[in-house]
């Protein structure tokens, strides 16, 4: 790249013929901009999102499987209930038995709902924790990069000042 080709005067004549943009723009640099570091940070972000998505998918599959099990159990219990209802029994005993059946079904439904809700809450917490951790790491990375840039700028200014004094 000749000296006339700079950030302010780039040569784009071949940029779009080459699908590898990192090579096409390799000579164009911005002061204080480290593309590799930014790409590394973005890779970490994508990895965190992938992990959170994987956790959510696994939990969703677990919930669907558990709901299918609960549906099968409900069908089996309904079949047993129908068989039981067909048995002759005194009306007073039938009322007491029906009340007990309704109570058990209600309690079981609540327990199942708590189980499913607990599974979903745990999944959301795990996925959210992955994202929260990555955001925190990302902010720490920004802080470190900023501090490094400030220190580098200070050292460059100090060196420039020394060279002016020496001249």
Radius of gyration: 33 Å
- By secondary-structure content and strand pairing, the structural class works out as mainly alpha
Helix amount? over 70%
Q: Low-confidence stretches at least 5 residues in length (pLDDT < 50)?
A: none
Largest sheet: none
Distance N to C terminus:
32 Å
Task: Summarize this structure briefly.
The protein contains 3 helices and no strands. It is mainly alpha-helical.
Describe the structure in your own words.
By secondary structure, this protein is mostly helical. 78% of the residues lie in helices and 0% in strands. The protein contains three helices and no strands. It has helices at residues 21-24, 35-85, 91-166. The longest helix has 76 residues, at 91-166. It is rod-shaped and about 115 Å long. The chain starts with 20 loop residues before the first helix and ends with a helix.
Give me the secondary-structure topology.
Layout: H1 21-24, H2 35-85, H3 91-166
Helix pairs in contact: 2-3
Features:
167 residues, mainly alpha, 3 helices
